[in-house]
Amino acid sequence: MALNHLFFPAPLFLLSLLVIAFASGDEYSPNQDLETPNIEKEDLLSTIIGIQGLVYCKSGPKLIPLEGAVARITCLAVDKHGFEAAPFSFLSEACDPKGYFFATLSPSEVEDNRKLKECRAFLELSPSETCNVPTDVNKGISGALLGSYRLLSDKKMKLYTVGPFFFTPEPKSISNGY
Question: Which domains does the chain have, with CATH numbers?
Fold first, then answer.
């Protein structure tokens, strides 16, 4: 009877070793390509950055891709001595017929050895006369922080995704009951 108590923990121990071995395997995870940058440890602009997103016109329940819309990317910067410098802004290319925009920034485009510390994407322009009121859905007005990125090794690019952003036909009116 005492002999059974000695052999019972051995299979349990082996099973736990197998579970640990399988759990530490190199299985693919959908979020494996995403990295959250540590801004204090690395420069945001140590390589080319790309920003992509979608812009729609939201009219009632309809979402219509907004061809020709433009996003603005604004980055806080510090100079070579670590003092805050003027923000740096640039525009995306106009959205394609599916509402997709793309913007890039390379280290050579940043002047005076400034370092970018935090970048945000904003709605900038709607080409539509009937759907041109920006909304703050997904921070289209207040600015969507560039957080996680996907590293495109072949293009030496950190690719950030924001949005989707939305314009509406008219501002929502607030009725006071008068």
Answer: 33-168 (2.60.40)
